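G., the chain you wanted modeled:
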Amino acid sequence: MHLEKTYDSPYNDIDVGLKKFMTGVYSWMTIGILTTAVVSLFTVKTGAVEHLRSNGILLLLAVAEVVLVFILSMRVWKMSKNAAIAMYLGYSVLNGLTLSSIFLIYTDTSIATTFFVTATMFGIFSIYGILAKGDLTHWSRPLMMGLIGLLIVSIVNIFMRSSRLDWIISIAGVVLFSLLTVYDTFKLKQLYLTHNNGIDTIMTEKFSIFGALTLYLDFINLFLYLLRFFGKSRD
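Predicted structure as tokens:
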């Protein structure tokens, strides 16, 4: 009689746990993106976007977004789970109000097309980040320097108004946030694998919110830079 030896490998436990963790991250990221999209469309359809734009409220909303991201990124571990979720969804709503202005610049069709292109690219790069076997931690410094450089050049071009430089910035933005999607997904995987034996369910859920915010920002920025190429002006 042949008896097949069976046993539970610890790697199987990690794989199952990692899949569950990343599913939570992607689920919250999707909820955030859908919240932003619904709020943007509602703001446009009701005509509120014109009021936000004409009264300078968009600038105040942008400042509020930066504050929320900073607080959530720095203090998510000390917040309650519900507080972290509320701040994340609040940020998604604020970003929806801010991004509603793109519907005044680009056609609905080109925005939808860009969204699906972004989703496809993001999915490919994020999967690569999960499956990456090597150590990508050395990407951190170059990517951070790239972000800082992109921000500085973008500010400079506000005053220069160079179309050629704007084109270069757009290409650099697409490349940078594509690489950031790979790196941030890899970093989230490593974060879970490093701490999965020492964190409880509540902390895991907080990790999911933090991860969702990170990938949400990558997705939105990739979308905005791609929109410069695929967006068709209403003029």
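Helices lie at 10-45, 48-54, 57-75, 81-99, 108-131, 140-160, 163-195, 201-230.

Shout if anything looks off.
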